[in-house]
């Protein structure tokens, strides 16, 4: 190659780079698909698919997990204690619940999570802010881990064994019903800022059940679905930004999913830190989901996506102390607003 063509080549490279830069940096982030090649490689050492239901292998311990529960996190100093609590709390449900973090950048807590039996996976699709897509975490989890249900919860949410009891009931309900399932619920806010043992998860669960405050039906911090949930045409919304949570319920209702409000049987304790209870409202690109949903589906009203719009409810039966699923007889009028189909 002569000098002139080298110069031309360099110029072309420069122009292409500038074009890519402009394309990626304009306005609210576009979705960046990470290619399969090296980056999408799963970094967990334990990604083997779990043997089938009641497959009593040599150690007799291999059961099909009831739930694959995953999260993703951003590690700030304040959040580190909270995330460690979550890691410890969720591990108490092993092996019935398999726990996973989708982590693209923060490595500091990996060792701690792995030590507690968590799997660490790289998410295949993220936005510029490195947040995984809601839909793609589920699709990836279904490929990499077999279980009856799949769930996402925010990394500051603690659960009790009631989560498993409710899901066992829902599993038997599902065996008699062809509809896909979505389980959601309100959370309980409990401030861990001034308590004596902010790093003791069982203390927080105990105190939270007692002194926590039930948040509103429009803030949903966990989503559990069956394998047949309609994910195929689910939009590119991300977790950790407002509006995706209500959209999940609206999408489910529009696709004839049996939506179950488990507020009464699945306590979900939100460890509130100094950042408060409205974190989704304070992030960079906070309107990312709203703008996308408005553009794609013309959605401006999210009232059809409250937990109160679920068509089923799980309740405690005071005479048997078991859990029952009941069909809601009526829903608030605002539920009809959008996507009403049944
Ligand atoms: C990339 O991943 C997608 C989804 O997992 C898969 O369908 C496709 O076959 C993969 N492509 C390559 C080249 O591995
Ligand atoms: C149990 O799991 C093993 C793999 O771990 C598989 O080879 C075997 O076929 C399974 N047995 C049944 C009955 O599903
Ligand atoms: C897992 O589920 C089995 C069967 O329902 C139950 O006997 C066991 O206690 C559960 N394990 C934990 C740790 O809750
Ligand atoms: C599902 O059907 C079976 C058999 O009819 C019944 O025993 C069971 O109670 C049902 N489960 C639920 C949750 O309705
Ligand atoms: C925690 O204590 C500080 C100092 O006493 C106080 O200003 C703050 O309001 C308390 N925060 C909460 C959430 O109770
Ligand atoms: C954590 O709290 C629980 C419940 O209040 C208590 O039983 C336990 O001793 C505490 N653990 C530590 C290490 O403080
Ligand atoms: C509680 O359980 C009993 C016995 O299974 C049943 O007859 C009753 O209808 C249940 N109550 C509710 C509120 O589901």
Automatic annotation (TrEMBL):
Signal peptide annotation: 1-27
Keyword entries, A-Z: Signal
Origin: domain of life: Eukaryota
Record protein name field: Uncharacterized protein
Organism in which the protein naturally occurs: Pinctada imbricata (Atlantic pearl-oyster)
């Amino acid at each position: 190659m002569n000098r002139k063509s080298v110069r031309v080549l360099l110029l072309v490279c420069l122009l292409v780079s500038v074009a890519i830069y402009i394309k990626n940096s304009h306005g609210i982030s576009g979705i960046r698909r990470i290619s399969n090649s090296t980056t999408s490689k799963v970094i967990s050492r334990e990604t083997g698919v779990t043997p089938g239901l009641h497959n009593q292998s040599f150690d007799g311990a291999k059961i099909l997990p009831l739930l694959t529960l995953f999260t993703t996190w951003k590690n700030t100093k304040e959040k580190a204690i909270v995330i460690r609590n979550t890691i410890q709390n969720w591990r108490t449900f092993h092996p019935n619940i398999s726990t996973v973090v989708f982590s693209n950048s923060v490595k500091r807590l990996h060792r701690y999570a792995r030590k507690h039996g968590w799997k660490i996976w790289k998410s295949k699709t993220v936005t510029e802010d490195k947040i995984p897509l809601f839909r793609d975490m589920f699709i990836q989890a279904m490929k990499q881990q077999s279980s009856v249900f799949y769930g996402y919860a925010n990394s500051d949410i603690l659960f009790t064994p009631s989560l498993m009891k409710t899901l066992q009931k829902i599993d038997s309900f599902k065996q008699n019903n062809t509809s896909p399932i979505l389980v959601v619920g309100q959370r309980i806010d409990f401030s861990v800022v001034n308590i004596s043992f902010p790093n003791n998860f069982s203390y927080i669960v105990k105190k939270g059940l007692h002194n926590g405050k039930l948040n509103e039906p429009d803030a949903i911090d966990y989503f559990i679905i069956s394998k047949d949930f309609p994910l195929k045409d689910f939009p590119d919304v991300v977790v950790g930004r407002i509006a995706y949570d209500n959209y999940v319920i609206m999408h489910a209702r529009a696709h004839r999913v049996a939506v179950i409000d488990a507020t009464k049987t699945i306590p979900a304790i939100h460890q509130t830190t100094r950042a408060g209870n409205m974190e989704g409202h304070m992030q960079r690109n906070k309107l990312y989901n709203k703008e996308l949903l408005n553009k794609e589906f013309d959605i401006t009203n999210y009232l059809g996506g409250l937990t109160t719009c679920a068509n089923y409810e799980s309740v405690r039966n005071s005479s048997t102390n078991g859990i029952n699923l009941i069909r809601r007889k009526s829903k608030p009028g605002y539920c009809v607003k959008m996507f009403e189909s049944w």
